[in-house]
Design brief:
By secondary structure, this protein is α/β, with parallel strands linked by helices. It is built from 17 helices and 24 strands. The protein folds into 3 domains: 148 residues, Alpha-D-Glucose-1,6-Bisphosphate, Chain A, domain 3, CATH 3.40.120.10; 224 residues, Alpha-D-Glucose-1,6-Bisphosphate, subunit A, domain 3 (Alpha-D-Glucose-1,6-Bisphosphate, Chain A, domain 3, 3-Layer(aba) Sandwich); 134 residues, TATA-Binding Protein (2-Layer Sandwich). Helix 1 packs across helix 4, helix 6 crosses helix 12 and helix 9 runs parallel beside helix 10. The protein binds zinc ion (ZN).
Length: 515
């Protein structure tokens, strides 16, 4: 909000893509504080830079997946998305602006690097002197020579969902009394979920809660996980819960899935989708492949092996999936951090995941809990949890990782808390599409029997570093598939501590957040 800051970034973005002259761009955001003001600045700058057309969501709203869809549908040269994803909004909270390229996906590092470089040597920016343009109703208007096309933010996205999923079967499910609670967390998916779930599919009015996007997300943290969507989580785990529960984040690309009496981990959700996607019309021909981020559990790998399709393991970050999707090497992708999606857009997509689940539940007629039990009985269960140690002094966090990295080669064959290390390495990725190499993507320790511990650092800065420890254990014994995850993972948790010395390095005896 400081003078010239946004303007600098927008001009640098236009310059980095070879100018806005003659371009068609998409613009929208998640409705957080400053969304409306930033949109007017961006529109006046696009007009002054000679853009031909800007397609903007009504009231400057667009979910991230809907923006990705519009870029692709309209053959736009790219899009500007105003959001800070799952981070809080409000005058003292977060705001962000990102540029997506013509494939609908996040700008690759070459583009973001060029934008950043340009912000450092920029001398001037172009902006039209004009009144605010009316974005409150759909239709075309002019700003200088540029056409501003205001569109219903939901319509094209809803039409895409109706092509991918069996809406008749889901309508019949709701007509039969199936109950749902979707928590939009006062963020962008409210209007989408209301129109699609309640409007088109017949979920009972009021099934979508916290459905009006608010500039401060109601003071909440629009992050769909058991911590920040606790009310929904607790309701679903009580006998009073509806048949199905879900939540999405600030800009609509993340999701959390629950059934009555059960929380479905994102890794398991991805595996179930891969196993059952053929039940949805858009995926009836089967999947070309699947992809998961490295720290995501191996549950989807087991499904892919059974289906005889490739499973790609990528570094964390949706952009790595974009290349695989563009190349037709994967159809469905997912991350442990509550992101799933497919080749229908080039972003993860929260409501898409909810509709995929509803399609699967409608087609199988099974409750979520029974569906999970059957999935685990067939494929085995990858018990999974992530332990986050937050705001560790950066030097101590780095010392832990450096120390562990130095010992990786000596670990195979050694015993830790009753487990034997089978392999240990630092994950690196060679992109099979563009050949780029990404090093230093996390320390992996695999144990005999299929268990795994992964260590990664993130968020280095003034608040220190966050150490993320990803824990996984494979269980195929039919009698041991319904255990508490933390209890089932106790040996891996102990082995991770014995090998990495988390307490010794950080002084912490327990994680701050367990998901
Ligand atoms: Zn997001």
């Amino acid at each position: 909000m400081e003078p010239h800051f946004l303007e600098n970034f927008v001009q640098a973005t236009f310059d980095a893509i070879g100018g806005a002259e003659g371009r068609t761009l998409v613009l929208g955001g998640d409705g957080r504080h400053f969304n409306d003001r930033a949109a007017q600045v961006i529109l006046r700058m696009a007009a002054a830079n000679g853009a031909a057309r800007i397609i903007v969501g009504q009231d400057a709203l667009l979910s991230t997946p809907a923006a990705s869809n519009l870029i692709r549908l309209r053959g736009a040269d790219g899009g500007l998305i105003m959001s800070a994803s799952h981070n809080p909004g409000g005058i003292d909270a977060d705001f962000g602006l990102k540029f997506n390229t013509a494939n609908g996906g996040p700008a690759p590092e070459g583009v973001t690097g060029a934008i950043h470089a340009r912000t450092l040597d920029i001398r001037a920016y172009r902006i039209l002197e004009a009144q605010d343009i009316d974005l409150s109703t759909p239709g075309e208007r002019r700003l200088g020579q540029m056409v501003v096309e205001v569109v219903d933010p939901v319509a094209d996205y809803a039409a895409l969902m109706a092509r991918l999923f069996d809406f008749d079967a889901i309508r019949a499910l709701f007509a039969g009394g199936f109950t749902l609670r979707f928590d939009a967390m006062h963020a962008i998916t409210g209007p989408y979920a209301r129109a699609i779930l309640e409007g088109e599919l017949g979920a009972a009015p009021g099934s979508v809660v916290n459905a009006t996007p608010l500039p401060d997300f109601g003071g909440g943290h629009p992050d769909p996980n058991p911590t920040w969507a606790k009310e929904l989580h607790d309701l679903m785990l009580s006998p009073a819960g509806p048949d199905f529960g879900a939540a999405s984040d600030g800009d609509g690309d993340r999701n959390m899935i629950l059934g009555r009496g059960i929380y479905v981990s994102p890794s398991d959700s991805l595996a179930v989708m891969a196993a059952q996607a053929h039940l949805a019309p858009g995926y009836r021909a089967g999947l070309r492949g699947v992809a998961r981020s490295m720290p995501t559990s191996g549950a989807v790998d087991r499904v892919a092996a059974r289906l005889g399709i490739p499973c790609h393991e990528t570094p964390t970050g949706w952009k790595f999936f974009g290349n695989l999707l563009d190349a037709g090497m994967a159809t469905i992708c997912g991350e442990e951090s509550f992101g799933t999606g497919s080749d229908h857009v080039r972003e993860k997509d929260g409501l898409w995941a909810v509709l995929m689940w509803l399609n699967i539940l409608a087609a199988t007629g099974r409750p979520v809990k029974a569906l999970m039990a059957e999935h685990w009985a067939r494929h085995g269960r990858n018990y999974y949890s992530r332990h986050d140690y937050e705001a560790i002094e950066t030097a101590r966090a780095e010392a832990l990782v450096d120390d562990l990295r130095a010992r990786l080669a000596t670990l195979p064959g050694t015993r830790a808390a009753g487990l034997v290390v089978a392999a240990a390495d630092e994950f690196a990725y060679d992109d099979p599409v563009d050949g780029s190499h990404s090093a230093g993507q996390g320390l992996r320790i695999r144990f005999e029997g299929g268990a795994r511990a992964v260590f990664r650092l993130s968020g280095t800065g003034t608040e220190g570093a966050t150490l993320r420890v990803y824990l996984e254990a494979l269980e195929t014994d039919p009698a041991r598939l319904e255990r508490d995850a933390q209890e089932a993972l106790a040996p891996v948790i102990a082995a991770a501590e014995a090998i990495a010395g988390i307490t010794r390095h950080t002084g912490r005896t327990a994680p701050d957040v367990i998901t």
